[in-house]
Structures are given as C-alpha cells and as structure tokens.
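In practice, a research group might receive sequence data for several interacting partners and want a quick structural hypothesis before committing to experiments. The following worked case mirrors that situation: the sequences arrive first, and a predicted assembly follows.
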Amino acid sequence: MGQVSRPQDAAPPAATDILRTDRLTKSFGGVSALDQVSISVRTGAITGIIGPNGSGKSTLFDVITGIVRRDAGHIWFDGREMDKPTLDKCARHGLVRTFQVPRVAASMTVLEHFMLAPPGAPGESLGQVVAPWRFRRIASDERARFAGATSMAQTLGLQDVANERASSLSGGQLKLLSVGVALMARPRLLLLDEPVAGVNASMIEVVMRLLRKACAEGVTVLVIEHNMSVMWELCEKVHVLHAGRVIAEGSAAEMQNNRLVIDAYLGRST
Amino acid sequence: MGTVRNVAGAGVSEVAQSTLIFVGIYGMLALSLNLQYGLTGLLNFGQVVFFAVGGYAVAVAYAHHLPDWAGIAGGLVAGAGLGIGMALPSRRLAEEFWALLSLGVAAFFIIIVTNVSWLANGSLGEYGITLWPTPAIAIVLAGALASLTVGTELVRKVQFGRVIRGIRDDALLVQSLGRSVLRFRTAVLGASGAIGALGGIVYAHWITYINPDAFGLSVTLLVFTMVLLGGSGNSYGVLVGVALMQLLSVGLQYLPFQAVTGGDLALLQQAIYAIALMLLLIFRRQGLLPERTVTYPRAGLGRWVRRA
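A structural hypothesis for the assembly, expressed as tokens:
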C-alpha cells in the first residue's frame, strides 16, 4: 500500500492543466499496477501515454474514471479534486473515455450509437416521453440527433453500415464507432484507449484529422496507443509508463531518443 | 351454443370471454416484464409480486370497507413504489443477484399476506370483492393493452428507449456516456410495477376473490414463457405469446386427457408448458416475432426526422 498523502501535501494543479494526477498508486494483490504515477495534461493539447503491455496504461484510465478504486494519490480534473469519481459522473462533467476492448450495445445500430451519445435531452425522461404535449420537442431533439449521427457516420466512413447492428461490425469498425461515440458525447477531456488498433491506414488518417479538429475546437485529448508514428505525429507531450511507473515524459522528439524509453519499450530498431 | 363443453362444463362463449380477459390480464403482466427484461435487461424473477400487489390492494381495501377507488389508487401507487424500491439495490448487485433478490421479494410478499391476517384474511383470502361488469373490464384492458403496446414501441425508438436498450446490452457503455443506470432502472421498474399492479387490480375485480395461492412462482414462469415465446423486446410479439399460451391452456381443456392423467389437468399443463419452453429455446431463441432493429430514416419518428 502506498502512503496516503493529504491534499495539502500535494502540489496544486497548474491553471493550464485540465487533468493532473499526483502519485496515483494501485496494486492488485501483490502486483503493483500503478506506482506513484503523476501526470499532467495541458488544456487544449493532445497528450500521449505509451508503454509496454501490462505497464498500467489502461489501469490509469480505469482509476481516473472510477472503474477501479485507487489505493492512494490524487486526481484533479478541471481544477477540482475528484475524490470518488464514477464513470457516469466523469462523463457528465465532460471527462469521456473509450475502452481498449470497445464497449458497444450489440443490438443497436451505428446510427443509434451516435444518436445515443449526445448528453441531456427531453426524450430521456419517461414522464416527458409519454406526455403528448412534449411530442414536438422530442421529435425535434430526435431530428437533431439523427442529423449529427449521420454526419459522424459519414466522417468515419461508416455510412454504408450506418443501419447495421454493432454485433456485425469488424474490430476496426468498432474502434472507429467508439471514437465517434465518445466525440458525440461532447467531451472536454477525451481519454482514448488505443483508438486506432486494428484500423486500416487510410482510416487512421481520418481519425487523426478528426482528433486534431476536435482539439482545435477545444477538446483536450489523452491517448494510449501502440502505433508510434501516430503518437509522434499527434502528441505534444508523451508520458512513458513501464511496470506501473512513469519512467520518462517529454516531447515526442525527446522520447524517441530517450535511452530508458528505447530499452523499456521501443527497442533498438525504432 | 351449448353442446361443446370444457372440463368445468362451461359453454363456448363463456370460455371465449374468460380467455380474452385472461389474455388482457396476462398481457399487462407480460408487457410489464417486457419493459423490464426485454428492453432494460432486468431479470425480474419476482414479476408476480406486482400482480399480487395490485390484487391485494383491492382485497385490503375491500376487507377494510374502503371504496373501490382506494384499492385501485393504492394498488397503482404501491406497485410503482415497490418497483422503485426494488431498483435501488440494483446499483450494487450484479444482474444475477438482483434476479435472486426479486425472487425473494415475491416470496416475502406472499409470506406477509399469508400470515398477517388483518390485511386480507391470511391464507383463506378475501371473498366477495366487487365484480366489475364484463364490458367495463374489457374496455379497461383493451385500452390499457393498446396504449401500452403502441407506447412501448414508440418509447423504444426514441432517446429513452435507446438508453435502456443500451443498459441492457452494455451498462458500462451507457455509464461512460454520462447516464445514471440507476435512474433509468428506477423509471422502468416504477412504470412496470404500476402496469403489473393494474393487471392485479382488474384480476381482483373479475375473479372477486384473492388468496395467496394465486400469486406463486408459476405465474412468473408463465409470463416469462409468454415473453420469450412471442419475442422479448417486441411488444406485438409479446401479445402473440400471451395469446398463444392462453389458447394452449384453453385448448387442453377440450381434449380427453382425463383418461391419461387421472384428471389432473394442471399437472399436464405444466408439463406441456415446460416442453414448449424447451423447444422454443432450442429452435427459436429470439421468439416468434423477434425484436426489430431500429433503422433510419424508417424508424418511429422517421417522418419527422426526414422532414429535417
């Protein structure tokens, strides 16, 4: 068990950082998944997390979004400390994540996923749905959702499978779907867990363009990915995790030539 | 009519009338379960408890010389309240454990009404409850069934339905999009509780007596069979399932089975239900009318959507 530090011991987040973690620690049984992990994500930037399999990248996302409870450490999002985050509370505050294995509703279509995602709607209260005098408002909300969903399907090249159930999509299509769904949820900070794994090269370009566009429109992105060319191209700053620790952080150029990073993760040939 | 008679000696028109009314009553229970299980993924093994709450609200009101409307209002409120109450522990329990909890709630309710005799005369039950005229019952049931069926199909296609179907398929996905799963389960269980209770209220005023025997586990199993047979998630399919099971049960009364079973028709019925359910699960899991995929722009609000 890591030592629990009191809030006043921890460094306050800089005003320019939308997310900051301070000495996050989590172990599963005897395995230390996260060991005093401190990272910061600058508002408006695309930040990367790289590291070998099992280095704790996804666990970091799980701890930040409350799926896994931390043993020790602190998390600040948007200037406020998150004591007991939960997945839905995070999303309501604008911290939206995707999963390494895409989470989808198997019986729902691509369009329905995109229509489901945007927050807050008159059609979400049963009382309003069954009230006839609300019908026009609900219809106009549905119309707006449909329009947004159609354009997202087109952007991601999913227009031909727009009316297919998620259960019939390929692995790469599911990745594209989950990136689209997360963007439709209007995040302020988007945590992406391997967004382009299994996605073909031309669609990777599209996803990168989409992320840059979202970033330009004010969405901050924190991304885990094994595709290094994507990471070097996208990320302003990269954190390198190894065996639950941050072993290096810095610009993409610095990380590519960092001895520790090469030994732990990139290998000689890269 | 007269010449064709069932085992109880009832004529064709009486049987037809009672069959239709039972289709209506079971239809309420099945549509209520469809909302929970078919659309939201809530495996409610205690579905009969909503039916029982409705029936007992009427019986308790009658036992204490309260007017009919008190039983009706009490039943609807208690059904919705119980549903909401059952939603709360769903936050902490995995689906399977919630299913066991629901089974326990139904068993507990029966124990209470059997043993607390000042409520509605304990295990003997309450007799002589006001009989509603058949046309009134028919109108209430037909109206409720029609609006529920059409309403459920509409709700299924708009955002509320998208969220609950998402919860059914993958609750984590829906949470990751900022929705409180508990809030939606509460809404669904509250509504389903009231719908199931309405079935119980009508039942009480049609049968005119209420005792604990009417609300056993077999009712829940029958309602599950109806939903699965017709097509879980498809309201029209569910109605088909209810009608078929009811016809099967009535049809059995006309066949000369006494010779085979020594007169124990109920036993034979149970065996045939079980076989029907097994065949169904082997050959057509999705039911006779499976849930339809919601596609655009043909979906429910398609006309409005297309105008955009």
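Before designing any experiment, note the following. Chain A has two domains: 14-104+171-266, 107-168. The longest strand of chain A covers residues 17-28.
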